[in-house]
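Format notes (please read before filing issues)

Several people have asked whether sequences and structure tokens are stored in separate files. They are not. Every record keeps both together, in the order shown below: the sequence lines, then the token lines. Line labels are part of the format and must not be stripped during preprocessing.
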Amino acid sequence: MKKRFIRTAVVLIAALCLGACSGAQTGQEQPEQPEQSPEAATESESSSEYATLHPAYAEVNSPDEEINCWGDSITEGYGGDELTYPDVLAQLTGMPVRNLGVGGEDSRQILARSLSYGNQSEDILVIQMGDNGGWNDLDELIGQYRRMIAEAGTDRYIIVSSTDDPNDFDQIWGYTTEPIGLEDTYYEARFREAFGEHLFEGRKYLIEKGLSINDLEETEEDRERAENGYISLQLRHPEIDNTHLNDAGYKALANGIYEKGAELGYW
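Then the structure lines:
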């Protein structure tokens, strides 16, 4: 994500020779970086030293059925006061859930880790990536999602679309002042076209159900934000940014993913 945390994370990743994030940040020129294949990135990113900093790197695949949650700091649970959506999802499903989120990683790095993880044919994938770049257009990002799913060898997966508010000038997805409410953003529409019933629209779900899941009373500010397409600040850490959630937000996100998986017959 964008603010001080992500700048720090990107510096750390660069210092550990993981390669700079690449992507089309709206309104900003991106310096050209040497092209790095996911396979090449895997060699540096699988180091034991890095695994000590990010538990996801220490996770070992098993032949048993598991839910593998792939992503960046949203999956890792930044801002959640030690509560993560994979933790809540484990409680809701009663299944083993692996939190494979690493804060600050772009979509290419997440793809590389998934490819190195091995066969996931017995597993269920939950994937949310792209908020940190690693793609030049949505066709490329969608292709990365599809490659991750194909190489995992499973047809059971859930794609989680961005939980960013569409009014964040710095966000990589673009910026709009239009009061879109629960209408599609351009990327939500493209993801639905690409992934159909496998898409879970995180932003919309949190607007519609996030407060009630947490027994939080809707305020006038919440109603105004919902009309504009923004998630309630009761589900966020607004002092951080327009991306990360608090513990209530992650709890709601897990409930939405659980509902989507139940709809698809995964648990």
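For reference, the curators noted about this record: The two ends are 31 Å apart (CA to CA). Confidence is low (pLDDT under 50) at residues 1-47.
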